[in-house]
Structures are given as C-alpha cells and as structure tokens.
C-alpha cells in the first residue's frame, strides 16, 4: 500500500502528531507536558520532513512541486518552517499549538492522496518541467 519512501513521511507525521499533543497539552496542563520535548518533536519532524523532500526530489529528478502529493508536502514543510521561525526567532509561543494540528491533519490527507507510485505521469515528463 505504501512505498518505502512514504514511511519517512509517515515518521514525520507521527512526530508532528506528538508535537501537536504536547503543544496543546502544554496549554492546558503545563506541568505534565514539557515545552522542550515539544520543541524536539517539532524540529525532528521538520528535519525528517526535509529529508523526505530531498529523497523525493532526487528520485524524481525534479523539484518536489510537480505532483499533488509532492506540492502539498512541500507547502506543508514551508508552513512548519515558518512556524519554527516565528516560534524561535520572534518568540511567538502561542502559534504552534494552533498550526501543528492543522499541519498534522493536512499531512494525513496528503498521504491518502498518493497512489502506489510516486513517479510523474508520462505527459508531465517533458523539458518545460525541468526548465522551471
């Protein structure tokens, strides 16, 4: 059902889910849920997600925005990256408890979009895609 490469993205989804639980849990009971552990989940999930995008782009030979699955995972990684920037650079701690459950939900939806293969359709394997 899943290709071996997708298990890397599923690992990122699990880390995003754990971060969502810890971020929301730290709002309601800050003594039980550590913000530091939530930060580790967030940064590790983003690292795994970026590794997945690099693997996908090396495998397909194009930017990871050519199929619906690739573009949705790429834009989700940008949302997480912006969330990390706002959290650590601008000290907006209240943004990630609201963003990460949405990212987790859309990541699960992106996994259901993909079929068994992650290759491009034959019509899309042309020079204009490589030129952009």
TrEMBL record:
<keyword id="KW-0812">Transmembrane</keyword>
<feature type="transmembrane region" description="Helical">
    <location>
        <begin position="72"/>
        <end position="90"/>
    </location>
</feature>
<keyword id="KW-0472">Membrane</keyword>
<keyword id="KW-1133">Transmembrane helix</keyword>
<protein>
    <submittedName>
        <fullName>Cytochrome c biogenesis protein resC</fullName>
    </submittedName>
</protein>
<feature type="transmembrane region" description="Helical">
    <location>
        <begin position="40"/>
        <end position="60"/>
    </location>
</feature>
<feature type="transmembrane region" description="Helical">
    <location>
        <begin position="6"/>
        <end position="28"/>
    </location>
</feature>
<feature type="transmembrane region" description="Helical">
    <location>
        <begin position="97"/>
        <end position="114"/>
    </location>
</feature>
